[in-house]
Amino acid sequence: MCAPHLAHGVRPVLQVGTRARVLIAGQAPGRRVHESGVPFDDPSGDRLRDWMGVTRETFYDSSKIAILPMGFCYPGTGKSGDLPPRPECADAWRDALLNRMKSLRLTLVVGQYAAKWHIGSGSTSLTSVIRGWRDHAPAALPLPHPSPRNNIWLKKNPWFVEELVPELRRRVRAALRGSR
Q: Could you tell me which of 142, 138, 147 has the C-alpha nearest to residue 120?
């Protein structure tokens, strides 16, 4: 359905499992992930795993962690980075896949497109949504995209690493153990 809009071709990249306890609701694969076919197989994934406090082995275990981006395929590049995820993908597949993941305990909402879908953030800035992370407890935790492009945002918002990352690690550990 999206093929006419994807200059780099259709290559869905996601990881789902009916027993997964943590959902990473991301944006869309980037160029490197499109090439490898492995979700978050890039510097963004390295940073996200560090924030979560998990190993690659745990991260790529679909019985523990599901990775369901808003768009399954690389949308291409625009003027200031990757294009937004294609909206057809979430409309067609998201609810059906989420309904099969009955064991989810925590959703990590990564970026503005995922925040609009999962939190209903509307036109609220992503920084405001992330600053209000306690409002979405215990089931969801909004995060900035872990891309190196966000280094400036991280420097401007040191509270994220100081207070939210430790809470993120605590919640991930609890969700993987089966508690909230």
A: 142
Q: Give the separation between CA 10 and CA 25, rounded to whole angstroms.
A: 20
The parent domain of residue 100 ranges over 3-177
**pTM of the full predicted structure?**
0.94
The answer to whether the beta carbons of residues 12 and 72 sit under 8 Å apart is yes
Structural domain total, the chain: 1
For 78-129, how does the pLDDT look when each residue is reduced to its tens digit (9 = 90+)?
887 888 898 899 999 999 999 999 999 999 999 999 999 999 988 899 999 9
Of 95, 85, 75, residue with least CA distance to 31: 75
Tell me which amino acid residue 157 is. N
* Residue 44: both structure tokens together: 């963004």
Positive or negative, the CA dihedral 13, 16, 21, 26 is positive
Whether residue 166 contacts residue 51, with contact meaning beta carbons closer than 8 Å, is answered with no
Q: What is the CATH number of the domain that holds 154?
A: 3.40.470.10
